[in-house]
Write a structure and sequence with these properties.
With 407 residues, the chain is an alpha+beta fold. Helices cover 44% and strands 23% of the residues. The protein has a domain at 3-220 and 399-406: Ribosomal Protein S5, domain 2 (2-Layer Sandwich). It is built from 12 helices and 13 strands.
Length: 407
């Protein structure tokens, strides 16, 4: 490990010491020994480029300073079950899940355990021998908030399994394995952004991810005068997962009607020519995809130039498109964005938009660092007055991606 890498590692451990202490103590409590492996993977926030990672677009996410941490140890003694068995305990849910380790394409456990089981199955499908293991999971990535807590769990599990098995996957393959786990075991047809963000996150860097070529262009974000503020509406409407799959299907239908093979080939003129053959919902979805692909590339350039007003303008247009064309926002998210807009540049806000799947979750807001406390106070107060719900928020810099802390 280089001196710089070691310094970053020590800083990470110091910053997240409470999470590490919690997971190690719980592991000893659950299994009567110290863990031999500690793995971590971050959630992510997408600054712009929403709902286009599965539509051949560009996205501009960053890993956030919120992590899933897994403590684990393989079982190698003679008492090990045959077939081997995986045990995983969630501190946050106070729930233990257990399943036999075997090649399969569907889950045998419920709820959150499916994500762990799906990643294990992905290793087995690649011919990797996975022994029995015990694990404990802790997280400070808010769940149900659109910050990819599920992807962080998947990537942390894969990173832990790499250490247990000694089989190290190329980073892109690890991300794709975990995406497949989410498709097959959780039934969510997500794009590649969440898993790629958790794997490839870098300190002080956004990533412009081309979801066709899977190539990443780093976009430096070192400016201290601006920060990313993430505000959780603390609502999640139940229709989210079904609507997500529905929107994906509507995009696919619209693309077929336009008679193109990729959204990267579609211009607004093509959309207008095909308008008569599209439903209003298909038309709105298509309009969002086409314009959001362009906005994301423009936003990356504006970040490079530190043109914060331009970034904010593009964020606002993105939210309006998600609200009116793609129809995945909700009243609570719209109120948070409206409140940020009321403050404006003079109040320290450049731009704000919903982030994640929608129907609740979080907004992401580009703000002046010096005014963060005042911005949070204003938005929290007025949001609660209008909705009766207490928002929560935190600021984050671009964070380190998945890594082993021990093992």
């Amino acid at each position: 490990m280089t001196d710089i890498a070691e310094k970053h590692s020590n800083r990470w451990i110091e910053r997240h010491n409470d999470l590490l202490t919690q997971v190690k103590q719980e592991f000893r409590s659950q299994f009567g020994q110290a863990p031999s492996i500690l793995a971590a993977a971050p959630g992510r926030v997408n600054l712009i480029g929403e709902h286009i990672d599965y539509n051949d677009g560009f996205v501009l996410p960053m890993a956030i300073e919120r992590y899933v941490v897994i403590a684990a140890a393989p079982l190698t003694d003679s008492s090990t079950a045959n077939p081997p068995t995986a045990k995983a305990y969630s501190i946050d849910l106070q729930d233990l899940t257990e399943f036999s380790i075997g090649s399969r394409s569907k889950p045998t456990v419920d709820t959150w355990g499916r994500y762990v089981e799906g990643v294990v199955a992905g290793f087995l499908d690649r011919g990797v021998n996975v022994p029995s293991f015990n694990s404990v999971i802790a997280s400070n990535v808010p769940t149900g908030s659109g910050l990819s807590s599920s992807a962080a769990l998947e990537i942390a599990t894969a990173t832990m399994l790499e250490s247990i098995t000694g089989h190290w996957l190329p980073p892109a393959e690890k991300a794709l394995l975990c995406q497949q786990a989410e498709h097959q075991f959780a039934g969510v047809p997500c794009g590649i952004m969440d898993q790629f963000s958790s794997v490839f996150g870098k300190l002080n860097q956004l990533m412009l991810l081309d979801c066709v070529s899977q190539s990443i262009e780093p976009v430096a974000f070192k400016a201290d005068e601006v920060s990313i503020l993430i505000i959780n509406s603390n609502v999640k409407h139940e229709l989210s997962e079904g609507e997500y799959a529905q929107r994906r299907g509507q995009c696919e239908q619209a693309l077929r009607q336009i008679n193109k093979t990729s959204w990267r080939e579609v211009m607004l003129d093509d959309l207008e020519s095909a308008k008569g053959s599209l439903t209003s919902t298909q038309y709105g979805c298509a309009q969002h995809v086409i314009t959001e692909i362009e906005r994301t590339q423009q936003a990356a350039e504006a970040f490079k130039e530190c043109n914060w007003s331009r970034v904010g303008e593009l964020m606002h247009k993105s939210h309006t498109s998600l609200q009116k064309d793609y129809k995945v926002s909700c009243d609570e998210l719209d109120i948070l964005v409206e409140l940020a807009g009321e403050l404006g540049t003079s109040g320290g806000v450049y731009g704000s938009r919903m982030t994640g799947g929608g129907f609740g979750g979080c907004t992401v807001t580009l703000v002046k660092t010096a005014q963060i406390d005042a911005i949070k106070k204003f938005i929290h107060h007025h949001y609660q007055a209008r909705t009766g719900i207490q928002a929560t928020s935190f600021a984050s810099r671009p964070a380190q991606g998945a890594h082993l802390i021990q093992g």
